[in-house]
Fold:
Amino acid sequence: MLLSFSRYSLRSQLWRLLLLALITCSSVTYALAANTSTPTISKPATLTSTDTQPFAINVTTSIQFERQLQLSYSTPVRMKQVLSDSLTHLPAFLANDVKTDSRIYWTGAALFLAFPHPQQHAIVTQLNQLATHWQGKQQQAALNLSQQIAELTTGERIFTSLDYDNVRLNKQANTLITQDLTLILPPRPERILVLGALDKPVWAKWQTRLDAEAYLKKSKPLSNANNSDAWVIQPDGTVEQHPIAYWNRDHHDIAPGAIVYLGFSSLPDGFETLNEDIINLLRNRAL
Structure:
């Protein structure tokens, strides 16, 4: 009897331990499930707003094209998704267009809120007014620069990374889109625009290892041009100051599609910020 009771007691204790283990395991599993499910529920709530209206992203390889792919969204969307949708649908959309190179030049990719840039007309007007203060070559150069800037396509550019790999891997680059925008995914350009305090603006063929000083030789600087430094506006909107004089010249690479701007060393009263205003406008050029 004593042996039988001991066996029964032992079995009872084992069953209690097993039941306790099962209860404990279930609690841990439930806690893990609750923790992992919270982000899944909260993320859509963060991206969805009842105040947000449906919007569209127009995608093109050049702002000059009338036909543009339109991506419509009913709720806010991340840049990664916009780029992914663009890469998926754009090739088929442009299948009948004549293209020399369908590869995207990510350095020149740009996102725009609206066209044209609100300062473009004001700068053109300023240059025309500047021409009235000068005579001869300087007057004609100001008019030439005014005409060239008037012909550029500029817009209100949103300066954010559009490199697809960077957007996929960097959370800060994966911005939230909530409004109508235009996305330009261009092929690589073959030219550099050279303009500023020059005889006339020049479109120069891009060449490997040519620097700002070399491109500026394509035109003739004015007597009141800055002879020490030139400004380079890279296709991604980055502004760089490149030394060009014999005493400070230092080589800096220039990307295809960039702009080389030679500033005026002296300007009449009322035009002191003209160089800065032009550089800022050129950052907003669309390829």
Notes: Residues 229 and 243 are 4 Å apart (CA to CA). The two ends are 96 Å apart (CA to CA). DSSP finds seven helices and twelve strands in the chain.
